[in-house]
């Protein structure tokens, strides 16, 4: 008799679980599950794609900055960017600043967007590029924030919905024993676990990408100050030295540098 009871209990436990929960779930429960799966796919795709892009962007930025600070003139920097393209935020900012200076020197203030001195026009161009780079870096982060904030509640709603139907079914059957209640209610808690499993990676990925983007933008903002100085200086790059590397004329900590952002 005891063996039969244990066998029946084991069979009952095996009958319950994630598969049984999906089979017994109605349209709402299955729809919530699909939403969580789509949230998970979207968040992981953003984390992987932006993570790979972040690593590549950091490597290209370091390579460009090393070339920039050892270049003999802005003309050589412009030639390098024109030849190989602007593949990182720093080269993108540099080529726009150089072109804006050349454009204003050639055409002057022909339109409202070009009004003011050459320095003012370069400053506005730098600000515009900084805004573009900020938007590009933050692209997709809103999805991660949304998934991290809403996925637990989607899972909780699925649990509440599952518990409600489980209790209704138990009430209709009239079997109110603990083993009849605990199984369906425990199955319904699977949705809460899935919601947390989707939200936690999204929140961690969001924090990691936000921190990395903040570091890049901070370096880009500091670089913009020095770039504005170099572009505004024109010729020569260093007093009395026509071919001095750019790194020899970096502004000091107390230098009065125009803000670019």
TrEMBL record:
Function: Involved in the TonB-dependent energy-dependent transport of various receptor-bound substrates. Protects ExbD from proteolytic degradation and functionally stabilizes TonB.
Quaternary structure, from the entry: The accessory proteins ExbB and ExbD seem to form a complex with TonB.
Region feature (Disordered): 242-261
Keywords: Cell inner membrane, Cell membrane, Membrane, Protein transport, Transmembrane, Transmembrane helix, Transport
InterPro entries registered for this protein in UniProt: ExbB/TolQ_transport, MotA_ExbB_proton_chnl
GO cellular component, one term: plasma membrane
Membrane topology: Multi-pass membrane protein
Family stated for the protein in its record: Belongs to the exbB/tolQ family.
Membrane spanning residue stretches: 31-56, 141-168, 188-209
Any one of the GO BP annotations: protein import
Protein name: Biopolymer transport protein ExbB
MotA/TolQ/ExbB proton channel domain sequence ranges: 110-220
Location of the protein in the cell: Cell inner membrane; Membrane
Organism superkingdom: Bacteria
